[in-house]
Structures are given as C-alpha cells and as structure tokens.
Amino acid sequence: xxxxxxxxxxxxxxxxxxxxxxxxxxxxxxxxxxxxxxxxxxxxxxxxxxxxxxxxxxxxxxxxxxxxxxxxxxxxxxxxxxxxxxxxxxxxxxxxxxxxxxxxxxxxxxxxxxxxxxxxxxxxxxxxxxxxxxxxxxxxxxxxxxxxxxxxxxxxxxxxxxxxxxxxxxxxxxxxxxxxxxxxxxxxxxxxxxxxxxxxxxxxxxxxxxxxxxxxxxxxxxxxxxxxxxxxxxxxxxxxxxxxxxxxxxxxxxxxxxxxxxxxxxxxxxxxxxxxxxxxxxxxxxxxx
Length: 289
Hints:
The chain is 38% helix and 20% strand. By secondary structure, it is of the alpha/beta class. Helix 7 packs across helix 8. The mean pLDDT is 96.
C-alpha cells in the first residue's frame, strides 16, 4: 500500500495509473465498519482504490472542537492495508491549504440546500465540505467516489456540485451500515459511553422504522408533519426522565434529490432526524419505499 502526504507525490503516482480506473473513498479517519463497507464497494468498481484521510478544519464551526476529533493514524492505516487499499492520501492542513484558510477560494453550495437541517445548525459546514471534496477530486482525479447515505444532506450537495460543475466523476451512494440493533454506524458513537446512552441512541432509527411501517400500513401517502410528530412523541416518551435525555434537533421529510421539505410521506421521500443523546449529536435518515 502506498502512502502519500503531498499533492506532488500523489500526482507523480497518478500518472503511472493512466489507463486504469480509480475509486476514491474520502474520509476524516477514525475508520469504522461503515467506512470499510465503502472501501470494499470501491474495490468492486475500479482498478485502483484510494482512501483520503483528512480532518478538514473548514467544516468545523467555532463551537466544535477540531482538536478533539479522533486521529488514530496507525489504526486507520492498518485497516486500509488489511482491506487491500492501493493508496492512502494523508495530507496535513498546510498541504491542503498552503495559503491559509482566510484567502482560500471556496465552493458555496446553493442556500436552498444548506439553509435547513444540519446546515442551519452548523453554519459554513457544507461550504467547507464542498470545498475540500472539490479539492480532493482535483488532486486524486477519481473515476468514482463513494459516499455513505447516512450523511444524506452532504451526499445531495456533492451530487449537485458534480452536476453543476460538470465534474468527470461518478458519485456512488452506499446504504447506511447499521449494527445488529439498527444504530447507524458513526465515528460519534464512540462518545456514547454508558449502556443507557447506547440504548437511547436507538430512538433515531426507531422513528425511521416507524415512518416506514406507517406508510406501508396506510398504503397511501401520509401527512408528514402529523405522522412524524406522533412517532417522535411515542418513541421519546420513555426518555423524558432519568439520567439520559434524548432531544430531537430536527425531524423532517424531504425530496431526496432537491432536499426541499415535502408535506407527504410517500415512496421516494427521505426522512431525516438529528438528535442529542445527552451531549452527543447523532444523525440518521431513511429513504421510504
């Protein structure tokens, strides 16, 4: 497995791969089973698999602790090696932003896709994501890029950026990977220390399963707001008292492509939820069928 820390080193190697297809899995490290599923998918699509590991400072807000983000470098590299990754691009912030962040040309996604949901609570986050992803596409020059559906708003924004800017890369969504209880795999899950916190975190997936079951039982579109509020109240009621609290930040139904809110639950609509389990913020979603 090759390891690159500079753009120049990688580009020299990329020239040697001319005629081969390349799949990119962009990550911020702390690789878990969900990332590993993306890497395995990449291996089925292309001749060469590249994993980027970069904790991107642009997508952290002033109240978010960039310094505390986990960076288990040796563990991440060992996982990539075990999965047969061909190359890891592991740059420093200085390598990615040599002139600093303040003077950087940035990608600004349309406000219609960023003003709600995670974008409303994390100002500037998706601008930082889009900017670093475009830089990675320019550096790595992939034919395919694999993104998990758990970060559905991010995925929709990247897909639109690729369409709007005519980028020569195919975005490959990958279904959310879950543990045996239904909890979406996330690097943030490691912050759920107590067993009760881990149990409470299942509220997110329970709301989503409830929406899918309600739609199938009705066999017709359901009013989104009324149905989701009822599900939220039912699922969260056991957690209104006690040492673990669950506070929903948003719960909504959106068009899966435009990410605009929709009034009805029906097949093809994506249901989104973000919630705090004590101090740990988690997100999840599902595509109704």
